[in-house]
Prior knowledge:
Layout: H1 4-18, H2 28-45
Amino acid sequence: MLSKKEVRHQIAAKLETALADFKPGMSEKKFKSRIKKASKLFSDAAPKTASTAKPKKAVKKQAPRKKAAEPVKP
């Protein structure tokens, strides 16, 4: 199981290698900060692990309600 921080670091490393072509266009500090922001957004959107995900409660279906008897017409 990976912690949220470890997942964020892995995402940042992958983004750095994937976006290496854009690195010369800006300073090192700006590049790192933008990678950090992007990795936070991706890690928040990533599916939760089994330990952090809350189990869903089973919803019971209600039995259909009985209708009132219709009055007899003379």
